[in-house]
C-alpha cells in the first residue's frame, strides 16, 4: 500500500493515527491486546490472567475502545472484549516483529 498525502485528509488521518499510537504506548494495554489476540475475554478473565486490578483493566480497555482497537459484546451481565478487526492484529504483530528485528531476534524479511 502506497500512502500519498494527496490521497487522504492529512489532518484527520494523522490525528486519529496519533491516538492509536498513544493507545498502544502502554505495556499493560499491549498485554491486554496480546491476550485478546488469543481469545475473547471478560474483564475478570483479563484481570486474573494478567494479574492486574479490575479498575486498571477497565481503565485500559476504555482507552483501547476509544481508539477503536477493541470492541465489546454484552453477554448476560458481562462484557466480552475482542480485537476490533484484523488491522489491529496486523499492526500489533508488525510492531512486535519490528522490535524483535531491532533486538536481532529475527532476520530482516
From TrEMBL:
This is HTH arsR-type domain-containing protein. GO terms for molecular function: DNA binding; DNA-binding transcription factor activity. Residues 9-103 form the HTH arsR-type domain. The keyword Transcription regulation applies. The keyword Chloroplast does not apply. Keywords: DNA-binding, Transcription, Transcription regulation. InterPro entries: ArsR-like_HTH, HTH_ArsR_DNA-bd_dom, Metal_resp_trans_reg, WH-like_DNA-bd_sf, WH_DNA-bd_sf.
